[in-house]
What does this fold into?
Amino acid sequence: MKIARFSRIGFILAAAGSAVGLGNIWKFPYITGENGGGAFVLVYLLAVIFIGFSIMLSEMFIGYLAKSDTVTSFEKLAPKNKNLWKYAGFQALTGLFIMTFYSVVIGWIFHYVVTSLVALPASVEEAETVFTTLLTSDAWTQLFYHTLSFIFITYIVTKGIKGGIEKLNMILMPLLMLILFGMFAYATTLEAFSQAVDFMFVADWSKITSESFVSAIGHAFFTLSLGMGAIMTYSASLKKESNLVNNALWVIFLDTTIAIVAGLMLFTFLYQYGSVPAKGPGLVFISLPAVFYEMGVIGNIFAIIFFISLAFAGLTSSVSIVEPMVQYLISRFNYARVKASIVVGLLFYLVGAVALFSNIDTFKEFLTIGSRNIFDWLDYITASILLPLGGLIMAVFVGFVIEKQRIESIMKPQLGFAFEIWYFSLRYVTPIAMFIVMLSLMGVL
Ligand code: PHE
It folds into this structure.
């Protein structure tokens, strides 16, 4: 059977497309705001370099070497206890959980593209009412856009690695960069730009708490799409002559640059137009639309293209979130790609719909278990438990389980002297950091 392989640029764009998502444009700016700016950004950058890079390289290595779905990869590469290690591959399921609410959020973004065409809210208060009404009482609008998002993502995945995923990323990623860099260029001409630069790059250590460290590491992890087999599954379609180090560095570079550019741009707009930066998830959906309104006509245009670019970022991540599960069904159960994509699509669609209803006032009570509703549970379980756990397992697997010689023969020529540093980090630094992060995100520490 002829297996479709990514082109070099196709792989980098697809992996960067996976990494650059709602995490970069929506989440990074608001958690930077919550954690006081500069010092947090520095901790985040260190986490990306020391922990993110190590795990990304391990995931790429496992995928590249095993060339299979996540379950088979662990099974194949474990020298012994294969039957036990294959369970590590069930991290592919994490994607299914993430996709449930990720698709709902993409739906909100679609809705915001349309509202930006019609009318922007004239004040932060109005913007807040618009957003809260959508979330807590307008189930049908949300369901409509969640359905669109499900159809689009599933359709792309049915087309496979080459004709679907690579193609989508080859088109949307350059467009996304063009839009963001264009808006960023405009932001640099505004007076408040220097204020935004100060905010993001001048470290005020008094704002940093141990929680900031944990959220910086946790976010570095989420934003690089690590810990659930997305990068691993893509790497299974790498060509034999690929240089993993080079690829990993490109993906990390693009992901980090885009997060910083988005952050600088948003903070410039917020400072320039005097909006109180809503320091929370409402930053993009509440403060920003009100700021765009203040900007006048250019604000309308910016609002539309900004939400379009956010949708692009979300969609290119989504296909990577479902692909591990789709690949698993194809290679372990012999499903045709179309069937596998539809099965996975329907699963996230249906659970996503329930999650969506759990935010609606009338249903909230029935769909709340303990302290959280279903939507929040899905977010919490994936970001705070499953992803760090997946990363921990990956580091231990490459650091302690696969024979060192085998790793050395492929990675030493690419890493040179840095090989031992990477290996050391995988054995001792990364697993411990992941473990601490997981416990504190779970509230145990
Ligand atoms: N990296 C994506 C983002 O920043 C999210 C993601 C997580 C994608 C895990 C794939 C796997 O939004």
Remarks:
- The longest strand covers residues 368-369.
- Residues 8-441 form a domain with the Hydantoin permease fold (CATH 1.10.4160).
